[in-house]
Design a protein that fits this description.
By secondary structure, the chain is of the alpha/beta class. Helix content is about 35%, strand content about 15%. It has a 7-stranded parallel sheet with strand order 8-7-6-9-10-11-12. A 5-stranded parallel sheet has the order 2-1-3-4-5. The chain is elongated and about 70 Å long. The model has no long low-confidence stretch (mean pLDDT about 95).
């Protein structure tokens, strides 16, 4: 009987797909190791595949401990924490999970937009705290109809957000690395220029060094006191200290965030603010989508070890 390939599990995937991996491979659970450095040294020369997600760094130093590594399979679409360049230099393909999470992430972007404008979370707290009973009706909020949504990053998810915004009679504009002449939306060369013409800016761009701190004071000042910020991309895209100052001083109307720096240990200053909506990085967190993402990990590994083309290489 052929020996099962050895796989290093840095971040596990869904239970059903983990069982599929268990049936086909010898799994080494880095995620469960008490001394991870020692564990990597112990099993590193056996490992032919890695299973992880973009929330966990995969560095060149880790690669140095895996001389037989053949593939890195991510259970996420984002890969800004993965040293893809170092992997490519060693001929190691990296796969991720595009497309399958597009709709759920776009749905959350719209839900966060509505919440930031209409104050649904605030209203729920208002009722639970007895304030409706004691203080009367909550103050009116702001309609989204007719407002302009500026989208930073008009890729798969950005386009899905744009379609949803149009369905709610919003105008759409965008900023990206290049103008997409086939799209019917206004293009702006900089995020600041986009913000100045938008009622809400939605971040749907990749993370990484290229976009780190892209939303800075200039962008927030462009949004102004009536503007909103929605982030479903990566926490690193926003200069969080500047965002906190803008929220604390009401220089923008509100923000709705699914991602943060140093998550899940986020800056607790956010907890004291009533003009920010907070979510625990759940853009793709539905049973259906997380299952499809996990299955892509299984299918990419199966394709690799059977000599077939990878389904979703980075």
């Amino acid at each position: 009987m052929a020996t099962k390939p050895d796989i290093l599990v840095i971040i596990p995937i869904r239970p059903a797909q983990m069982q599929m991996l268990q049936d086909s491979y010898t799994l080494h659970r880095y995620d469960q190791a008490e001394d991870r450095d020692a564990f990597l040294t112990e099993v590193g020369d056996k490992i032919r595949g890695v299973v992880t997600m973009g929330i966990s760094p995969f560095t060149e130093d880790m690669l140095d401990h895996l001389p037989r590594l053949e593939i890195v399979a991510l259970g996420s679409v984002g890969y800004d924490t993965i040293d893809v360049e170092a992997c490519n230099a060693r001929g190691i393909p990296v796969t991720n999970t595009p497309d399958v999470l597009t709709n759920d992430v776009a749905d959350l972007a719209m839900a966060l937009t509505f919440d930031s404008f209409r104050g649904y979370s605030r209203g729920e707290r208002y009722v639970r705290q007895g304030r409706w009973r004691d203080e009367g009706s909550m103050a009116p909020t702001t309609s989204v109809t007719g407002k302009t949504m500026g989208i930073v990053g008009l890729g798969r998810i950005g386009k899905a957000i744009a379609r949803r915004a149009e369905a709610f009679e919003m105008k759409v504009a965008y900023h990206g690395r290049r103008e997409q002449s086939e799209m019917p939306y206004a293009f702006f060369d900089t995020p600041a220029a986009l913000a100045a013409e938008s009622d809400v800016v939605v971040l749907a761009c990749p993370g990484g060094d290229e976009t780190r701190g892209l939303v800075n004071r200039e962008v927030l000042d462009g949004l102004g006191a009536d503007g909103h910020l929605v982030n479903i991309s990566r926490g690193s895209v926003v200069n969080e200290p500047e965002l906190l100052k803008a929220l604390q001083n009401n220089r923008i109307a509100g923000a709705a965030l699914d991602v943060f720096d140093n998550e899940p240990k986020i800056n607790e200053a956010f907890f004291t603010l009533d003009n920010v909506v907070l979510q625990p990085h759940v853009g793709s967190a539905t049973q259906e989508t997380r299952g499809a993402m996990a299955q892509l990990v299984v299918d990419n590994l199966a394709a690799h070890f059977s000599g077939k083309p990878l389904l979703t290489p980075v």
